[in-house]
């Protein structure tokens, strides 16, 4: 078997699915699709009558089926996958083995892509087990290069500057001698210089003036409205952010006072939150190939999206742990949020919605970082 160069975060090979111990299965709340070939392979499996009966009722066709999106998994009354047994484990996996699972089930939360002859492997923080791994990492997230066996991959065309610029963003983000919001602000300076001149200079970004901050009182409603609007089309965000959405009303005159009390309690309960957020953001930057996340956006638009990610993490975490200051509640909130961030057009929506709020004044972004 041939060998390939692979780059992956150091936790990648330690990831293990929690199986029946998962509080919020990846099968819940998402429209999971299979292609035509997989559908007919599953329906025709040589398996037990009990499993076959489940498979017969497990799928329905979308309104506009295609060979690539031929059938959708039909959730049960709990919103869970019908293949889940009473103990939370997958009947299909248990009886027939991993090889018969649909590709999405075999791969998730892993993302494997080939870029410029290098295989990039990473996991999405939309999985609670990945969020737990990232929060357990004491040191800044590191990425190692080694040789590996052939991996299933999606071949993509990559910009030759991507690696250099992504590394520069990670370097700025992981400079722990400065507060996390200031580090994110330096990424904005880096991308502004790159957009203007094509320069990728981390040192200059460190010395650049931070964006003028709007009062946080004005930035907070913008962040809450961003999450509320996205939740209208994201069942995952609506479900996992329910406590925050109920607690924070962007039009409430007492919103800022309530949030500041909640934020102070959050920081007391979770003093390691800056490290946790840093690792999650570093993983996210690598996962999304930031700052080339969405080809429809300029580097400044990408930066707006990244600030939106931070703001969403902060408001979601503070609001969802206000009544239940437990680590599991925080993990559920963050992994639920990343379902929306990493599996939808979050950056494009954040750029549009925050620009609407700031009405052309980029100063709002500084206020958002001060949340």
Q: Could you please describe the fold and organization of this structure?
A:
The protein is α/β, with parallel strands linked by helices and 371 residues long. The protein is 51% helix and 9% strand. It contains 17 helices and 8 strands. The strands form 2 sheets. The protein has a 5-stranded mixed β-sheet, with helices on one face. Strands 2-4-3 form a 3-stranded antiparallel β-sheet. Strand 5 and strand 6 form a beta hairpin. It is globular, with a radius of gyration of 21 Å. The termini are far apart.
Anisotropy-based shape: globular
SSE arrangement, N to C: EEHHEEHHEEHEEHHHHHHHHHHHH
Radius of gyration over all CA atoms, rounded: 21 Å
In what order do the strands lie side by side in the largest sheet?
7-1-6-5-8
